[in-house]
Amino acid sequence: MRPLPLHRALTLGCALATAAALGACAEIPEDHDAATTSLGPIAVGAHLIAADLVADELVTLAVDAGDVTAVRRVPLAGHPSALAALPDGASALVLSRSAERLDKVTLATGERATYALGAPFEALAVSPDGDAVLAYYPRGATSAVFHNENELAYVDLRDGVPPEDAVTNRTLASLGGAPLGVYASPPAFGRRFALVLSEEHVAVVDLHDPDARERSVPLVSLGTGGTKTPLGATFAVESTGGEEVLWALVTTAEGGSVFALRVADAPPSALGDPSFDVRLNQLAGFTAGGSVALATLPDGRLVSLMTSPSAGTVTVTELDHGTSESLTIESGLNRLYTYVDEGRPTAVMFRAGSVSFHILDVAALEERKEKSYRTRFAQRPIVDLLPIPDTPLFVAFHNDALEGVSVIDADTDRVNGFGKTGSVRGVLLAQDLGRLYLLTRVDSEDFVVAVTLADLHPEVVAVPGRADAMLLSRDGGTIATTADLPGGQLVLWPALLADDSEALAVPGYLLDSLLDR
Fold first, then answer.
1. Are 362 and 296 in contact (CB under 8 A)?
2. Among 30, 36, 65, 232, which residue has the least CB neighbours within 10 Å?
3. Are 209 and 268 in contact (CB under 8 A)?
4. Cα–Cα distance measured from residue 92 to residue 78, given in angstroms and rounded to the nearest whole number
5. What DSSP state is assigned to residue 330?
6. Rounded Cα distance, 192 and 440, in Å
């Protein structure tokens, strides 16, 4: 690919674009740390946004074909302390700790709705559908003086709910200190819940009933009797027989312990009691260093998948009845990803550092146990895999400074290498599955690479200067890189494929051992 001359380098010191595009920047004191004058940028729909920490404004850029086509500055209710994108791709949230406010900004119009939180919260947890957000104090928050660590605020972001009626503050009775984590669930049986993780227990909160007490669930090992410290939670809603049930998998800091929480509708036993039941099960088949996932079978049943590196097994458990099946795959099996292949849940499993990986048809496990998976091989040891949904293609990442990435066709066993690829630092998958974008460093130069998945043809463009991260606007109009230079830098190009629609950002943990930041 010939180098594209149409790019624009943008400084993020007091804004996110040139003075010609944004107007004059606010004056920055000489002793001001330029690296802290903005939050972001992050990609939200067709926009790139950042918060100007000098002017207390949200800066939005609508980008098209590598050019800034619209620039907007939205005054905020207070000094911004955190940014979050909403799943609709049209709005963003800005938290102001000092002003005790939350702003929801519609990026296309600049319209702002402000929610009074009533406390200087320092973290946000957004629900998967973007209709709810929880503001809370994370563990280790020290900025707020004399604050209630057990307090949180639920903000109802649904259309039609005025900001003055949208915020509900409550103090949880069961916490022993600031939460280890807060998670907003997807809606289930007409309600929404929060899971608040604290030392040795989980509090389940009905966000639609602020007067009802939470249910506190101790995490006690059924085998040893010892208590466990929760690390994280994953949700799924099971709908069988016309009844919805909310499930959450809770991982713990202690190896070998994963708990399943079943939250179901139920009448309250007394005034003020919660109108839901919580059932706790400890799942078997997981050991330290393993992976956990949820999948829905074609008939609607929900199953958990867990790997045990010490036993080399994968265990699939039907959550509602607790029945499970285990397969011995490979010693050290510690990576697990799920996707849907022609309507059937499929798992990809492997041991990091191995050349082999295994593909499990989850629904077939009950039918033909030993024939429910197949094994494929790469040319080099695999650090991690990225499945391309609805295709037999897998992108393999290798801990190799020269040849760091390849593509595997699981149906044909064909492995496609790319020669000198350098150290891969970022990956984006086009939602329409037409292109894979990579940010890579070869020697001391950075490059953006676009691989057409139909024929695996790579196109390469050099990044001026340095790049630390890569963005693709959701409408596919622009590819961008950012650099942690003094004041920051953002470089924009025309999209390398005109009909790209949405972009799916691959989580950074996929490349932990490859990132060189």
1. no
2. 30
3. no
4. 15
5. -
6. 41
Rounded to a whole number of angstroms, the distance between the first and last alpha carbons of the chain is 27
Taking CA atoms, 12 is separated from 104, 312, 462, in Å, by 22, 48, 21
Tens-place pLDDT, residues 479-513: 777 776 555 566 666 555 433 333 333 333 333 32
| ∠ CA 219-510-362, rounded to 5° | 65
Using the structure block, give the residue that is written with the tokens 């702003």.
Answer: 103
Beta bridge partners of 115: 102
Can you tell me the distance from the alpha carbon of 368 to that of 362, in angstroms, rounded to the nearest whole number?
10
What's the DSSP call for residue 220? B
Token representation of residue 318: 């039907």
- Residue 181: which of 248, 263, 255 has the closest Cα? 248
pTM of the entire predicted model: 0.76
Strand blocks (E) in 309-421: 313-318, 324-328, 335-341, 344-350, 356-361, 373-377, 384-387, 393-397, 405-409, 414-417
Ramachandran area for residue 118 (φ above 0: left; ψ -120 to 50: alpha; else beta): left
- At 42-94, the pLDDT tens digits run 777 767 788 888 889 998 876 554 455 557 889 999 999 999 989 888 899 99
Instruction: Determine phi and psi for 228, rounding to 5 degrees.
Output: -125, 150
